[in-house]
Every structure is written in structure tokens, then in C-alpha cells.
Amino acid sequence: MKLLALGDVVGAYGTRETAALLPRLRRETGADFVVVNAENAAPGNGTDPASAELLLESGADVLTGGNHTLRRYDFFDLLNEHDCILRPLNYPAAAPGKGFTILRGPEGLRILVMSLCGQVFMGPADNPFTAAERLLAGQRGNYDIAVADFHAEATSEKLAFAHRFDGEIQIMFGTHTHVQTADEQLLDKGSGYITDLGMCGDTSGVLGVKSECVISDFTTKVHMRFEGAEGHFAACGALFTLDTRTRCVTEVKRICTCKTETGMI
Q: How far from 25 is each of 14, 18, 31, 166, 225, CA to CA, in Å?
């Protein structure tokens, strides 16, 4: 089984380009299942119904969330109604939506996908370690493999999570920083891991945003409304190959597909 995970989709431009690329990317990687982090997919930030629906229609099986998922009220109904759209599991139980889903994959595999937020340098959230422990214990027998998107700032928190759940969560990847890390690895007990998938957005600015919007904060302390940059698109993520017999990941491969004037490379 091959699972493709794509990092934070940034803004309207990132959403359009990701949706246009997904069918080809899924075909060329041979991905059986696709997880996309969509917490920044709407114009500005957050997720809106149009962005989520476009990504699902284009080939995403699950959309995971993060610290911006609950920014838009018009997204709450979709969060509550759709099994394939997630917000962080370790948010309050009363928050809109759900933090995990279980879907059928290839060979009838039951795939549990959870979305989690970190605590270090992030907004308030319950402990992601204990939230994952409770979920796995409560769903024991209802799933065959587990997947976690850990949306966090600190690399140490992500890596500690990976080692804690090695062998229990087969596929683990980090999101949030918009910068792809080069530490894809197979862990001792059979799990696959990468600290950050990167982003799906424009690479000519700062993390998908026009440079001048961010420079203003650092040079004048005057916050400018973030505007998405456009023109140099890249889709970043990772492809995980899992042996369905042993339930162990056998390969983790970084993905970075760039758009040029002549097409995608």
C-alpha cells in the first residue's frame, strides 16, 4: 500500500494548483490513499467549504487540520457533517468537527487517520500524546493501520511523538512550518516518519505569502494582512510504502513537485 501525504495547502492559489496536480501526482506515485493538510487552504488562512470540496473532488481521501482550522464559521457545518475532514483531535470535545476518521483502503484495510496539534510554541490544546493514546485504546479492533498528522512547531515534540508511537501508529508526519525537512526515516518498530512535509503553495515569497507582508512585521512591527503569493508553485509531501502483511513501512520518499513555465517537474 502506498500513502501520499501532502503538506499545508496555502491559500487560493495553492488550493487551485494542488487540485489541478493531484490526479497526476496520485497516478504517477501509485498512491492508494491521499492525506492533505488543508488548514490554510482558504484565502487568508483557515479552510472554507469551497477549498475543502475542491481538494476532495481532486483526489484527496482525507483533509487534516491545524491551528487555523476553526478560523471560519462557514466551515463548521462541513466539519460536523463530513467524515473525511478533520480538526485537531486534542481540541476540546465541544469544538466543531472530529479529530479522527476510519476509512477503507486497498485490500479492505481499515485506515485510522488522526489530526493532532502540538503544544510547544502553539495555541492552547490538550496533550497530543495522551489524546493519541486514548484514541488508539478506544478504537482497538476497529482499525488495521494508523496514520497521524502532527501539526506542530517544535521538531523535538514531533520526533518525540514519533518515537513514543513507533509500532503503534504506522505512518507519522509533521506539518505546520511550511518547510520540508530532510529526515524521512524508518523507525525501529516499523513506523515511517518525517518531521515536516513542507507546503503546497508559492515558493517565491515567505511560506506561501508575499514577502513584503512578512518583512513589515520584522522591520516595523506593523502587521500587514497576509496576501498569498502566486507564480512559483511547489507541492511538497512524502510517499509512504507499507507492507500490508507485516503492517510495517518499508520506504519513505520525499516528494517535491515544482511548476515551471514549461510544466511540472
A: 15, 9, 8, 28, 32
pTM beyond 0.90, yes or no: yes
* pLDDT tens digits along 68-84: 999 999 999 999 999 99
- Tell me the helix, strand and coil percentages in the chain, rounded to 5: 30, 30, 40
Smallest CA-to-CA distance from 6 within 265, 196, 242, 236 is with: 236
Over residues 133-151, the pLDDT tens digits come to: 999 999 999 999 999 999 9
Rounded to whole angstroms, how far apart are CA atoms 54 and 15?
8
Q: What is residue 232's predicted lDDT score, i.e. its pLDDT?
A: 85
Q: Are strands 233-243 and 248-260 parallel, antiparallel or unpaired?
A: antiparallel
Report the C-alpha gap between 109 and 212 in whole angstroms.
47
> What is the spatial distance between Cα 21 and Cα 157, in angstroms, rounded to a whole number?
31
pLDDT above 70 (res 7): yes
Q: Active-site positions?
A: 68
Task: Give the whole-angstrom CA distance, residue 90 versus residue 129.
Answer: 9
Name which of 202, 193, 212 is nearest 234 in CA terms.
202
H runs (alpha helix) in the chain: 11-29, 49-57, 76-81, 128-138, 155-164, 211-220
HEC-encoded secondary structure of 104-141: ECHHHCEEEEEEEECCCCCCCCCCHHHHHHHHHHHCCC
pLDDT given at position 265: 53
The closest of 122, 106, 61, 58 to 86, measured between CA atoms, is 61
What's the pLDDT tens digit per position in 221-257?
776 667 766 778 999 999 999 999 999 999 999 999 9
